[in-house]
Amino acid sequence: MGAPESFVCPVPTRYHRAMPASRTLAGTGPASRAGRAPGRVRVRWRAGTPPPVLVEARRGETVESRHRGSIVVVDPHGAIEHLLGDPGTVVSLRSCAKPFGLVAFVESGAADAFGLTPAELAICAASHSGEDLHVRTLQAILRRAGIGQSLLACGTENAPIDQMTAMRLTRDGERPGPIRHGCSGQHVSHLLLSKHADWPLEEYWRPEHPSQVAFRGALARVFGVHPDQLETAVDSCGVLTYAFPLVEVARAYAVLADPPVAATDPVRRGMVPALMRVRDAMLAAPDMVAGTRDRPDTAIMKALPRRLVSKSGAEGLRGIALLPGSRGESKPSGGVAITIEDGDPLGRAGRAVAVETLRQLGVLAGEPLRRLAAYHRPPLHDPRGAVVGEAVSVFELAPIAELS
To answer: What is the CA radius of gyration of the chain?
Structure first.
């Protein structure tokens, strides 16, 4: 058995595949019942231990299926506050990376050079639904920049996400183009950055292209690692994606929540203005972050205006940036990362866990919580629309001091 590994500092991703058989997680908290002094406490997680059940799908009196996963909540400085499951489980960021890579675009001056509005900047960090609203916004950006949308290399897989739009396109005999892909905003930002920097527009998606190098450089700075240490794979839209322990995702979203407080080290301090601009754009235009219909990220952000940023990835991953005061007046900011082990193919577990986590943290209550009822306990319907079951969260998010 190897020595325990500390998660106080970011873990270089080159070590992900060589995790010891057990590891110790550090957080902050009050004195434990055993008399431990206030301050830092430690929790051991044994490798191979299955994550806990977070959600049950119930039909009548029968539990039809269960969804396991892990949740990490950190304070502004990255110390673990609440924990359920394994914070060291390695996840692929997928679309959760978009707000951080977009920092390179803002820092380059391209956002100002092309006059991007907050809504236009938000869609560059989005996994949008491919609705006409999103298409018109991206087309306007490309027209101003003098770039043809035929250069988009994100493909058309699952485009558009919005079912009403997809049905209309099918009815009209129209095939969706790449601009309706949920990642087209990110790809547009690569094209704009390339034109601004006088880099080739063609093959902007290749890992060695300067726009991709800039993206992962910004991402590495946020996560506190060297770009050469990033563990990479290819995302479904054709660009690289990156893998990190779940706790590091929570810490990155804590940085997004309150950059002046969280980005205290010299490397990240210079990113504060760009991070704030990306965050504020997403807060100002939640419809651009996901979509106007049946998209939990947008619904959660609209239920709690300017109090948090919610950004889903893929395969059951979600990051949430909790702004100062979101958990109550005078309460500090924080970051949340959630992963559903089975990838959550129907989307119900991730929705339920996100809303229930925010409820248990004191972020959601009253009317905002009622507005999110369909996400909190996603219903199961019969052919006539009657509710015949629901997905129910069955977890209790424990403060880390109670786990020591």
So the answer is: 21
Cα–Cα distances in angstroms (integers) from residue 205 to residues 51, 130, 194, in the given order: 35, 20, 11
SS3 label, residue 190: helix
Mean local confidence (pLDDT), 338-356: 97
Domain span including residue 248: 92-400
Cα 29 from Cα 69, distance rounded (Å)? 23
Say if residues 400 and 71 touch (Cβ distance below 8 Å): no
pTM score, whole prediction: 0.90
Query: Sign of the C-alpha dihedral, residues 63, 50, 41, 311?
Result: negative
Looking at residue 117, its amino acid is T
Distance CA 358, CA 69 (A): 16
Q: Is residue 37 part of a domain?
A: no
What's the total number of domains in the chain?
1
| Dist CA 244 CA 232 (whole Å) | 10
Angle at 303 between CA 128 and CA 248, to 5 degrees: 65
Q: Is the pLDDT of residue 43 over 60?
A: no
Residue-level pLDDT at 10: 35
Q: Are 354 and 375 in contact (CB under 8 A)?
A: yes
